[in-house]
Amino acid sequence: MGIGWVSYQIYDSLQAFSSSIAGMFASRAVLEGVGVGDAQASPTAALLLSVIQESVGRIATILFAHRVGTALEPECKMFRLAADVFNDTAMVLDCLSPAFPKTTRVLMLSMASVLRALCGVAAGSSKASLSAHFAKQGNLAELNAKDSSQETIISLLGMLAGSFVISRVTSHSAVWTSLLILISIHLWTNYMAVRSVILRTLNRQRANIVLSSLIGSSNLPSPQEASHLERIFERPGLLRWVDGRILGHCMIGVELSSILRQLPGAASRPSGKSRIYRYDLAPQKILGLFDKEFYVLWFDTRTRTAYIALKEGCQPRDQVRAWCHALLVARKYDLKGLEVPADQKTDYDAVPPALQLLAKTGDELSRNFHAYEDKLQSAGWDTTTIQLETRPRIRISLSE
């Protein structure tokens, strides 16, 4: 098993136990809300409510999976914890619903169904990714079977304990006190479970940590050390230095047109069914700068956003290099801007400052990147599986 499996399983069992008990409070509230115990309640109304909940839940499943499907594996830690936030919020809505009028109650229960659907997508996908991480000897099926059996046992114990608890906790104050305690335990144990996972693949956040450490001090953190520096909830696409300073944003895997629209003086006018673009900086200069690379990079100094277009044939090392280049450009710009001292004559003096920054950092990266790769592999990082892209795969092809 992978590193951290035992502690992950312990915390995962505790969270499943507390969630089972809290879920029984929510189920009792839902039954009360649909009219169990009320002689005037209609079975047809309860059935229609169930149909509404199922319908909105399935629609939410489809839309959420389409929206975040590519990001689920790279950000499996975040989505694993987010799934439980969704689920706990749904339980709170269920418990609140009996106190509201019928129309509002339907909306609240439907929203709870949507949140459970989001939980199902996020939890199922992230758990599959974590299981693949822990399965080190081709025993993924065995691991999933054991995990499913363990979860069944824990859920059964939780239901037995929950049956004892809910039969004795009946007042509103006691119910809410118990529910909030159980939800707090559930979220804390989930947080600790996710924290105990040590991943060796490079997603955007871990790439920021290890690459900025290499650039800044040549001291490369191991996967264990980097896991302590990770944030579970990190804003997508941030370029963050190892000291926590935000340098900008990066969008990797964009279309070439996304880069061209950010060039200085970019403007367009309609021409029949298409548009004609003009630029102050010729696109050929940028494309020529990255002629020998498998990516094209542009850094928009107005928004401090790096745009990376990946070419056909781009390999994992090329993606790491592209992200490293974006991080280096953002760091140089953060420290010095685009100022070029008059007494420093270089080969780039005739080049616009923004392009000059890309060229200089590209040369610096060419001198050091092979050493960076060797250090990454020596420290135990997986450089063959890169998880920097969180959107559908886009590759560009440039003809001669």
Automatic annotation (TrEMBL):
Principal location: membrane
InterPro entries reported in the protein's UniProt record: RUS_fam, UVB_sens_C, UVB_sens_RUS_dom
Residues covered by the Root UVB sensitive protein C-terminal domain: 292-389
GO cellular component, one term: membrane
Entry keyword Transmembrane helix: yes
Places the protein is found: Membrane
Keywords: Membrane, Transmembrane, Transmembrane helix
Similarity remark: Belongs to the RUS1 family.
Protein name, per record: DUF647-domain-containing protein
Organism expressing this protein natively: Eremomyces bilateralis CBS 781.70
